[in-house]
Design brief:
Blueprint: H1 15-24, E1 26-30, E2 35-37, E3 46-51, E4 54-59, E5 65-71, E6 76-77, E7 93-96, E8 100-105, H2 107-116, H3 118-144, H4 147-162, E9 166-167, H5 171-178, H6 182-194, E10 198-201, E11 204-207, H7 210-218
Helix pairs in contact: 1-2, 2-3, 4-7, 5-6
């Protein structure tokens, strides 16, 4: 994979800034569970996902987590470089969900390149708008959808990502994604199981009626 795979307008960036981006790039391979950025650790820089899966989330004062969005191959995380976004006060944590390879671009180098290239600046704004839309979608789900519908949608999304109807997920992990308590997840899963939509066992959830589960999530 090359830098142009992340920035299609790379050749439009002035040569000095483009070469500075390429020189400053650092590569990291990390195991699942590695925290790549935390609001407490300052400005990490842009994270470019070469392979694997990252999760961006926030933590409430009580310690409850909620997933904002997930990042996959060729995705870019700008919020890990929040120091260059002075008007944005947003403490997020970015964690590797699977073994991952990421490239890190220092925020100051990227900011200089964006100031010299309107194409890169516009692309940056597009990425920010896309991430903001994802966060707003999450807010709408929390405000307007009941937990059974949100959980049904989450299980279907996980099944699509894993390519399997059998998911190795703990109730705690699901709760962290959805921003709720483990006990709530356990209770809703029990109801879905009673309805014949899923089968729950220790550390594993099997989707047994995808059609009805999808109807529930879209209701």
């Amino acid at each position: 994979m090359e830098l142009v795979d992340f920035f299609p307008m790379l050749e439009e960036i002035p040569k000095p800034e483009k070469e500075a981006l390429e020189r400053a790039l650092s590569r990291r391979r990390v195991p699942a569970g590695t925290v790549l950025h935390s609001g407490m650790t300052g400005c990490t820089g842009l994270l470019l996902v070469v392979s694997g899966q990252l999760r961006a989330y926030i933590v409430s004062p009580e310690g409850r987590e909620i997933t904002l969005y997930r990042l996959f191959d060729r995705d870019i995380c700008l919020l890990s470089a929040s120091c260059m976004l002075h008007s944005l006060q947003f403490d997020i944590t970015v964690e590797a969900q699977t073994p991952s390879e990421v490239w890190v671009v220092p925020a100051d180098v990227y900011q200089k390149a964006a100031k010299s290239s309107a194409a890169l600046a516009n692309y940056t704004n597009e990425i920010m708008a896309s991430r903001f839309s994802e966060v707003m979608w999450d807010v709408e789900q929390i405000l307007w959808k009941s937990m059974d519908k949100r959980l049904a949608g989450f299980l279907l999304e996980e099944a699509a990502l894993e390519g399997s109807d059998t998911l190795r997920l703990t109730h705690e992990k699901i709760a962290n994604h959805l921003g709720t308590a483990r006990e709530v997840v356990t209770r809703v899963l029990r109801l879905l199981q009673e309805e014949g939509l899923v089968r729950v066992s220790r550390g594993e959830i099997a989707i047994t009626d995808e059609k009805r589960l999808r109807e529930l999530s879209e209701a």
